[in-house]
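Before relying on records like the one below, remember that each one covers exactly one chain. Contacts with other chains, cofactors or solvent are not represented anywhere in the record.
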Amino acid sequence: MKVLLVISIISTSFLSFIQSVQESDKYPHGNLDMECSVCHKTDSWAVNPDSMYFDHEKTGFALLGQHSQATCRGCHSSLNFAYVGVTCVDCHEDVHKSELGFQCQNCHTPASWNNVQEIFETHNETRFPLVGVHAVVDCESCHPSSDPYAYKNTPLECEVCHQQVYLSAENPNHVQAQFSTDCEACHSMAATSWYISDYQHPPSYILRGAHLRVDCMDCHQSGYAGIPHDCYDCHQQDYLSSHDPDHAKFGFPTTCETCHNENHWGDAEFDHLELSGFELRGAHLTIQCISCHVNNQINGLPRECYGCHVNDYSSVQDPNHLAAQFSHDCLECHSETVWSPSTFDHGQTRFTLSGAHLSVVCGDCHINGQFAGTPIDCFSCHEDDYQAVTDPNHVQDQFDHDCRQCHSDIAWSPASFDHANTNFPLSGAHQQVACSDCHQNGQYTGLSTDCYSCHEDDYQAVTDPNHVQDQFDHDCRQCHSDIAWSPATFDHANTKFPLSGAHQQVTCSDCHQNGQYTGLSTDCYSCHEDDYLAVTDPSHVQGQFDHDCRQCHSDVAWTPATFDHENTNFPLSGAHQQVACTDCHKNGQYTGLATDCYACHENEYTNTTDPNHTSAGFPVTCGDCHNSTAWDQTTWDHDAQYFPIYSGAHAQKWDTCADCHLAPADYKQFECIFCHEHNQTDMDNKHRERSDYLYQSSACYDCHPTGRSEGD
């Protein structure tokens, strides 16, 4: 209790001390109602800003933006904190000199004094929004600090700021031209430069073409008012200095726009036809005026070509116009596009040029400059060619002088004589031979058109077949063609014996022996008698085969024969197709043979022992049990006809027929009781209830025809 009392006394004493200090002149902070411990500590009177917990917002002035970074003494120059001003101008110099009021926060923020963007946006709410270059200039450029009322009463007219620019402008000189001081008439506030003008020339003289690119002073040297609008006033010097043509000497009108345009002075568009009556075409469009208007002569000039081109006319040597007395109408041969080459249309004469004539020079035909009366027939020019030809010799053979019958105007050689127009059109090999091969000794008329007349030597030289000996017809075309003399193309199909098969490959003499071509027999035997006689299997002679070889043989080949046994009363089937003819047709006998099996297979029938066909008296109708595929493959069905021995209980219980058929001569007899294991005693006991029971094989079969017990 004593301790608490002491602390209470001390605290009361300290507070009393503080109060007394605040009320005395020794308290430095003025009327600041705040505990000292907020800023000061007991361990040291010095203030540590990092450890103090003073809340400035409770003073009524919150520290925002840059204020939060300032030191205390930045605003509190004295320790009397209670009497610090709270308006901006208390700390910040008012450079606007109160012209914009005392509400600095209208433009500035605690975050930054130089908040240009916000100030710029604020400026746009004034009478003068900042656009174009005005948006990037310094404030002092328009609001100099040295001027009173530099902000509030700043004038809005352009000339106030830009007067010096107006006065210094030279192109054009604004002062001399007495331009209006309303700068916006030509300049835009949104422009990025003063020198960018959007001035539009008045409708009385709209700028076009090259005028858009010239300086104003080029036209407005003496001012801007009262400037003439006609071209000549500006272009008089161009008019006077022109020499092709000389405008002044020619007395050209000063209405420049008649020929010139505003794009380029040199691009004149003079209408020669309209103004002179002489239309410029072709090469005339590109030559200089003085080429025709010599010494600047305009009137009295000739309109026809010869008037200007007399020197060209006189100097031509091929052909020589003077010597040939050519017409002075140059357009008959020449065009306005170019003087040479000429475009003379030979088609307008009696001799149209075509083929090789198109490429020869005029002097080749028009010798010594002769153009009139030149003959148009070929021989007149080609007489030397006519006489020089030796194959065929035109002179000796008295060929017609109408060269076009054989030659064309494309080339003199080769000739294009159309033999088809004669009574012997050339075809095949005739097209390749020389004329003299047929027209010997220069004979071109009266010649025979038949083959023999030319091919007699060929006819007589043939030995296979010998045409002379065999007295062949002289009409060679029956066998030969005009494609080639050999091979011959005689069509045997037109005879009584058309060639087919192997006959097409044999030589003529194989059939036509001793040159005999007429009266020959067409039957096979007449040529193939030796083949007929030589055959031994089967012997055609011994077998008295028919002489009609085609019954067995074909014309494709003599062997193998193609005799069809199907056409007989014994068609071959199975193994019969593989045996030789003589196996059945012995001693050459082919007729009167029996068709039953036993006739050929008697030995097989007799020699069979299991079962013995003979002793058993088997029928000789072999087909009952055997087939034509193989003799051993019997098809007799013991199970279906008599008793099952290939199926059921008796299958594989026997080896030979004699196991059951003890009498080889009588297969109707059979025994059952000798094969079974059961003896008579057992069988008797087993069957004692059967009144019809007998211990006999026939009795067994009567009751057991299928080999099974009753009920099985």
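Residues 1-24 have pLDDT under 50 and may be disordered.
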